Amino acid sequence: MKKKIIWIIVIIAAVFGGYEYFAGKKPVTTYTTENVKRGSLAQTVSETGTINPVDQLDLSFKVSGRVIELTADVGDTVKAGQLLAQVDLGTLSAELSGVRQDLQVQKETLASMKKNPSQYNYEDKDAQRAKIRSAEAAINSALARIRDTKMFSPADATVLKRGVDLYETTVANSPSPVFTIGNPDDLVIETEVPESDIVKVKLGQKSEVTFDALPADQIFEAEVTEIDPASTVIQDVVSYRVKLKLAVQDGRIKPGMSANIDIMTAGKDDVLMIPVRAIHMDGKQKYVDVLTDEKNNITERRNITTGLEGDEGMIEVVSGLKEGEAVITFVK
Length: 332
Known about the structure:
The protein is α+β, with helices and mostly antiparallel strands. It folds into four domains: 74 residues, conserved putative lor/sdh protein from methanococcus maripaludis s2 fold, CATH 2.40.420; 94 residues, Efflux pump adaptor protein, beta barrel domain (Elongation Factor Tu (Ef-tu), domain 3, Beta Barrel), CATH 2.40.30; 62 residues, CATH 2.40.50.100; 60 residues. Helix content is 23%, strand content 43%. The chain has a six-stranded antiparallel barrel. A four-stranded antiparallel β-sheet has the order 3-10-8-5, with no helix packed on it. A four-stranded antiparallel β-sheet has the order 7-6-4-9, with no helix packed on it. The longest helix has 26 residues. The chain is elongated and about 135 Å long. The two termini are 49 Å apart.
């Protein structure tokens, strides 16, 4: 019984002693740091785009109708003025016949007025002449629409796309073109850059481009050649169309291919830099905590001035730090 009591006392003492030991021990702060290093910073705007011919044209009929003739197909080379397609006249022939008959009636009416000058004054004859001019305008309008039933190529080009089949009905000024023509050997990359990034993009900036259809390690150089001054809204995002010209044309690159674009908007070499996540704000003042004594966990606040913010979370340090110093990025 005495031995049992002694063991109980020993256990209680051990538990109490352990509690006192750990309770009196201060928690240890652990710092994750990264050294200030020197290197190159690059700032890029990354977007996706599409390859299109420089002078690509979308052709649609100005009148609705059923396609009764197609004289070109994808890949065909066409000349300026060449007939590409035709839709049926529909009611245009009857309409033209009707307005011609009306013109004849109006002319005969005016001739009758002239034969009976006592029954008609100058205003009556002038009004009749206006009816004749209106009938002539109607004839010209009908003839123009009849001419619009035929589609001609506006330039020497290659047919890149065909959007209708024979005997299919097409709608006047449809957003889906009947033909898309252009030069497949003179290509440009088109992309939409959101307003948050467009201020960084300038004419003449270089870019690196890869294509989904080609190996990822094949990188092509391109240059920004055009920035639309007017914006477009795509899925509630204000964007600006930017065009880039490839430095070298490659026969494997075809119109319609998807392109991955990195536009080099800024860059600096031989600069001090740290991770952006190490920076804190005190009002408008930027500062970092520097681990000055790793053995004793001693830190020091350091006000800094920053410059270019590059890709991959790094930023230039203009003043306040020296190369090799350890800035704190995480505290545990």
